[in-house]
Each structure stands twice: as C-alpha cells, then as structure tokens.
Write a structure and sequence with these properties.
By secondary structure, the protein is mostly helical. 67% of the residues lie in helices and 6% in strands. The protein is built from 14 helices and eight strands. The longest helix is centred in the last third of the chain and has 27 residues. The radius of gyration is 22 Å and the shape is globular.
C-alpha cells in the first residue's frame, strides 16, 4: 500500500510546492471575498467581465481552436438574453408594448434559453460545417442583420427599441434581485448574489472547455484548423466537428447572454449589434487564440476598459465624460483595444497568455 501511496503523496507535495498553486488559491479566496468589500459599480463591472469571458470561451472554441471565423456571435447572445426574458417573463404591457411571456420558473427559463441558442446554432450548423474562414465570417454576418431586424420589429417579444425588463433569477429558494439579505452583517443585493452564480458558471464553462481542448475532440479541432485535408484523410469527420463546435459555441454565447441580461436587468436590441461581435473577436485575439485563459484575460481587458474610462473620465486627459463632447470613454476604449489587437498580431501572435517562445531568439 505504501508503494502505491508514495507516488500520490509525492505528486500532491510537488503540486503544493508550486507557486502557481498558491497563486490560484489566493486568487480564489480573493474572488470569493470581493462582494463583501466592493461597491455596486465594481461588482457589476466584474459580472460583466465574467459574462463576456463565458461568451469569449465559446468563440475561442470555434475560432481559436477550429479556425472558423464567426461574425455573428452577438446574435446568439441576443437569443440567450431575449429567450430568457420571454420564457421567464409574464405577458403584460411595458412602455406601450404588449409583451408576451410564458412565465416559466426562471431557473428553467435560463436552461431553456441556453438550449434555444444552441438550437439556433444548430439551424445554421449545416452552413458552418461546409464553409470556412472568411466565407463563414461573411455568412454569419447575415445573422447580425437578421437579428437586428427581428429585435427591433418583434416588439411583442423584445419590447422594440426600448427593450424589456428582465425577470430576476430564482434558484434554490433564493431570488437574485435587489431585496437585501444580510450575510455577515453585509447587505447582499442583486450584484452580490449574482457574483457567486456567475463565478460558478464561469468555472464550469472553463473546465468543460478545457476538457474539450485537452481531449480527443480538441485534438481533432486543432487538426481541422491546421491541416483540414490531412484531418479528413485520417478519418476526422470535418463537417460534423465544425457543425458541432458551432452549436457548442452558440450555447456558450446563449449562457453569456442570459447572464448579461440578469446583470443589466434590461435588454436593449441596439446592444446586440456588429460592435459586440467585433469586441468578442478582439477579446480572443488579445488574450490568446485557442486557450481558455486567453479568452478570460481578453474578455476582462476589453469589457473592463470602457467602464474604467467612464468611471475615471473626470481625471483622465483627452477623455470627456459621456454627453459632454470630445472623445467619449467608449470611443477611447475602442481605439485602445484596437491598438492592442494590432500589437498582439505583430508582437504576440499567441496573445497575452501565450507569448511567442522564440520572440527573444535571433533569426
């Protein structure tokens, strides 16, 4: 017994001696403790970043691991967000629009909204299975135009231009709304409650994607990306894998859309447009293509930058507060992460999380 236990004990001891293990442990404790100390602005910014990270992980599976360019990621976020609103909301009138809703339990509506986004991806998957590169990017671009038309005109479902309110999530008897719940003498409202739900969703999403990338499906996806014809010759069903990863990426986007709707507490059609899809592409390029960590880092950079610029616009040079004229925080942030994309392509092709091994070697 000692012979079999010794290697296990040695492995555990070796892992505990790694600085990375203690760094992960300290980071986990910090993330769990933040709702007790941060105000609402910072919590909402963190929630927005976590939702963006989930969507970026899904896009990285499609674009980074498989090499399939998608310009329609925002469409599937909209399907998840509005699907949750319709499934969980009740029928009624809001802002002069008669809204439809099924009134399902909110936890069930969230699950069905993710599946609905996957079903929307499934309808498009035959095209995704046969197109690649820029051709798929152009084809998915049509989803943005179709989605914007539906969101603005199907007012009974979406509320039209002004959007519709989002029903709060209820899970295990806990409602994630602004009703105060005292935890260790700290009042927890919607942001504090959603923080832990978002952390759990991000953790499970990251672990699942990591398992896919490190397993047999990940090797097949990488083979399709690098050598499509050779992968087909080796017996990899290229079209089926492309279609499958497109559906999986759509479900990740749907989950991100549900979480975004819960954070904002209102869905607005204008948000789910072309700019959002481009921002997600910037996330995975800046962070690193084909990695879960790259998606998380890139999502944090792109999603937090405009919020930080808005928050500190009074003290930053060349940046004006929204509505006062001059360079707005949103415009400044797009310039900055646009420059970051160029810098990543030129100097860090692997992104922030995968620096080039030979960057310091002489040619």
């Amino acid at each position: 017994m000692s012979e079999t236990a010794t290697p296990l004990g040695y492995a555990v001891t070796a892992r505990l001696r790694r600085p990375r293990t203690w760094l992960w442990a300290a980071g986990s404790v910090l993330l769990l403790a933040l709702p007790f100390y941060l105000d609402r602005f910072w919590l909402q910014a963190g929630l927005f970043a976590m939702a963006a990270a989930i969507g970026a992980i899904g896009l990285n599976l499609l674009t980074g691991a498989t090499g399939q360019l998608s310009m329609g990621h925002a469409f599937f976020l909209a399907v998840g967000a509005y699907g949750y609103c319709v499934l969980a909301g009740d029928s009624g009138t809001e802002n002069g629009h008669a809204l439809s809703g099924l009134g399902l339990p909110s936890w069930l509506a969230a699950v069905l909204a993710v599946l609905l986004a996957g079903a929307a991806g499934g309808l498009f998957s035959p095209i995704a299975g046969r197109l690649r590169g820029a051709y798929l990017g152009i084809a998915t671009l049509a989803l943005i135009f179709i989605g914007q038309h539906v969101l603005f005109n199907a007012s009974s479902l979406t509320g039209g231009y002004n959007g519709r309110s989002v029903p709060p999530l209820s899970l295990f008897g806990l409602t994630f709304d602004d009703t105060e719940v005292l935890v260790a003498a700290v009042p927890f409202q919607s942001s504090e409650k959603l923080w832990y739900a978002a952390l759990l969703a991000l953790l499970l999403s990251g672990l699942f994607a990591r398992g896919v990338l490190r397993g047999r499906p990940g090797r097949a996806l990488n083979a399709i990306r690098d050598h499509r014809i050779a992968a087909g010759v080796m017996g990899v069903p290229v079209a089926r894998y492309r279609a499958g990863v497109f559906i999986l990426s759509s479900m990740y986007a749907g989950l991100a859309g549900v979480l975004l709707a819960l954070v904002f507490q209102r869905t607005v059609p204008e948000y789910f447009g072309m700019v959002l899809s481009l921002e997600y592409l910037a996330m995975i390029v800046i962070g690193g293509l084909g990695t879960v960590a790259g998606a998380v880092v890139g999502a944090a950079f792109v999603s937090l930058l405009p919020q930080l610029l808005t928050h500190y616009s009074d003290s930053l040079p060349l940046v004006a507060a929204p509505g006062t004229g001059g360079l707005t925080p949103g415009e400044a942030s797009r310039y900055l992460y646009g420059a970051a994309v160029v810098a990543a392509v030129l100097f860090l092709p692997g992104g922030l999380t995968r620096p080039t091994k030979n960057s310091g070697e002489k040619k």
